Every structure is written in C-alpha cells, then in structure tokens.
Amino acid sequence: MATMSPSKITPHLWFADKAVEAAKFYVSLFPDSRVDSVTPIPADTPSGPAGSVQVVEFTLAGQKFMAINAGPLDPFNHSISFMVNCADQAEVDLLWDALSDGGTVEQCGWLRDRYGLSWQIVPTALGELMRSGDRSRAGRVMQAMLGMKKIDLAGLRRAYEGA
Length: 163
Fold this sequence. Notes:
2,3-Dihydroxybiphenyl 1,2-Dioxygenase, domain 1, elongated, 2 domains, alpha/beta, Signal recognition particle alu RNA binding heterodimer, srp9/1
C-alpha cells in the first residue's frame, strides 16, 4: 500500500460521499497527479459503520491532498477554492469544460464542480495584465473580466490594448 510522506500543510476535503470518485476525476485532469491510497476506516464512526468511511490520499499537480467520505456535515462553499493558473487559453478551456461538467459556472473564472468544490480557472496572463503599471489598462482588464464567466484571454488582451 502506498503511503504519502507528510507535508507541512495538506488540504483536507470533507465529502458527504464520492471522495474516491472525485479524487480519481481530479487526478485525471492534472499532470503529476495520482491517487496514493484509499483507506476504509475499520471501526464504526458517527458517520457510518466500519468500512463505509474512507480516507483518500492523492496528489494533484505535485500537491498532496487528503479527502474523506464522511457524510453531509458541512457542504463546500466559496470560503475555500482552488485557483488553477493556466498557461494558455487551451488549458483554460480544457479545465473549465471538464470541471464545470455537471457543476455550475460562475463569474470571473469561478465554477463549482459536480462535487460542490469551488475552482478558479484563470490564465497566468491575467495577473500580469492586472499588475500593469498603467492603471487605465489594468482597469479595462478588470472590467472585461467582471463581464466573463470563463476567462477569455484574447478578450482580456483586447481590453488591455483598449480595442
């Protein structure tokens, strides 16, 4: 059985159910990702009988995560989201389409996946455009982004140039 070496900080996700399914889905989308282990809890817990609660250890893009199937204690909300910096529009499109399938799309590159987890799918260039020393250009980029659901890099660049 594979075991993860402990990270100083590991995000831990509490799923009502489908933690294993979610982890397998997430690792299918990002390079340097894998499910490291799935461990059923061998004792009865407040969340279920022995074996029904599962701990999933997985790695996404080199970052260690842990998830648990433990019943509907608290649903995910916008307090925590995962921001994915994408190299180009093709990567934005790929991840947006996959993660929003069965979920809900929101404003400014945010979406909630089919498991209820919030993601921000943004091109790395967005930060570069927003950090421009020209506040007028950065303001146009911000206004353009506020009108988008999925971020359109070409649209941001047009706004930056004032076109």
